[in-house]
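Protein modeling request. Please complete all fields; requests missing the sequence field cannot be processed.
Requester role: graduate student
Desired output: 3D structure, token encoding
Chains: 1
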Amino acid sequence: MKLAFHKLTHWEYWPFELLYFPVFFLWAYYALRARSLFFFNAANPSMKNGGFFMVSKAEIYQLIPSQYYPKTNLVSPNMSVAEVLDLVQKQAYTFPIIAKPDMGLRGSAVQIIADEAALQHYHKKAQFDYLLQALIPYANEVGIFYVRYPHESQGRITGIVSKEFLQITGDGTSTREQLLQKDPRAAMQLPALHKELGNNLQTVLPLGEVEKVVPYGNHIRGTKFIDASQWITPELTAVIENLCSQIDGFYYGRLDVMYHSIEDLAQGKNFSVVELNGAMSEPTHMYDPSHSIWFAWRELFRHITYLFEISQANHALGHPYLPHKVGMQQYRLHQKHNQKILDF
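Delivered output (344 residues):
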């Protein structure tokens, strides 16, 4: 009941349908203007469905110059365990590595793979294509939202979210589970952590030891999102513009970036792109607990307007909207694929 009350009184945990309810009306208005429910298809012409759904991360990585992202390989569930292990050996991966669905669902089924046994376990469970990815050696992560209209030579950063990973500090007497139960944000992760950590949750963390429990920058996995839009500077904008200008057909979306320090990032060094998200991107800086629901709705309205206007401009240049029949087919496939990840 305590957790249920916490969710009720903290809008960042509200169900998607409730949070986005006012947005649906604006979407309907823009759909009527475009005469297409799936106008977003034109937002990023180089991405399948504009990057909204049924888009392969592996295909998006191919759009990004290789020096900006970690070593990544696509794995099919039809591959044998021996083939997967052979791939790891040939590509010279060093454990631990990351495994994540090629078509993701807000951080679900993303895992750190500690060794070959863990990889075999993940592969046998996965009923979807997934990526193996080298661990990025930087401790910090941000999400940087970028937009550019087709007629513009330069785009802009519209928001930055800094990510505070879920971690606990040992007191010498409490188990990991007891420490997690003290914080509602952490306690909500216990069902997933029971599956991942098992009996390790019952061990006592030494006094003063800090442990990152969930090393993934996803809100759904307990990460606290902090609005860091004050970091938008001409220097950082130039770095992001230099990167995005090399990504053909990219106009709207969010770059999730790991970095050493904000000073290095603003100088264009010691950073790596975790993912590039297209038309489905949320302005995740809105999830800062200090922001009101009114701020969140304002940011959603602002960014959906960017999405519509960019799509409309690209459509005028000859990039098509998605036909309704095709869009509905893609949506149903998207829902079916998401269920596979939820069943993982």
